[in-house]
Amino acid sequence: MSVAVAALVTLMLHTGCSQSGDQAPRTESGVFSTPLQERRFGRVPPFSLIDRTGKTITLADLRGKIWIADFIFTRCPDLCPLMSARMAQVQSTLADQPDLKLVSISVDPEYDTPAILARYATQFQAHPDRWYFLTGNKKAIYRLVRDGFKLAIHDPDDPQASGPPHTPARSTVLETLGRWLHPHAAWAHTGRERRQSVIHSDRFVLVDGAGWIRGYYHGTDPQIVTQLIKDARELLRAGKDA
User: Fold this and answer.
1) 11 torsion bin: left (phi>0), alpha (psi -120 to 50), beta (else)
2) Which domains does the chain have, with CATH numbers?
3) Can you tell me the mean pLDDT for 65-83?
4) Angle between helices 3-14 and 79-93 (to 10 degrees)
5) What per-residue confidence (pLDDT) applies to 158?
6) With contact defined as beta carbons under 8 Å apart, do 118 and 106 qualify?
7) I want to staple 83 with a disulfide (CB 3.0 to 4.6 A). Which of 23, 32, 143, 219 is the partner?
């Protein structure tokens, strides 16, 4: 790990990144007011993407595993390194849980080849069997983000691939804006030009072994990431007890 990245990881383990936008309903005991065992936010649809190792990873490869997904890209200079530092914290904290997988999917797949993702993953000491970095067809990935994970995504270079999460539509401006901002949509820059920016979510998404989404968590908030780790452990225990 480079000195700069190591310093960033150390900083991220002790401080939070301030994010504006919506917050999930919170209680004193956790992020959500609904108990974990009752949460179902939709099911992840089948997908087929390419890992940094060149191996094809599908939804079927994650069956029976508890997994945490996020969406990043390697040319993002700000939000994505913060999210990946937090994901590295999750990897370290849950190193004793072999049935947990981490899945980072690039929203800039035309640039993020497996080789580039492999270099990026090395910066965060990502274990190749525990933490996947995936790339593939851009439109398929954007459809997976919007319609599968119910997150906002937008790239001004390809507006046809972009859009808000797919929900039953009503035409009011406030409701349209709400669909864009929930879960929280954050700006990150592609590096081509600063005015050309990908909008993508800062959420970590917790998925159970049957593909059900069980929670959304701000990936840059240390307290919420701690809750994510707690919830992941609970799902892992439930799987072993089943």
Assistant:
1) alpha
2) 3-15+39-241 (3.40.30.10)
3) 93
4) 70
5) 61
6) no
7) 219
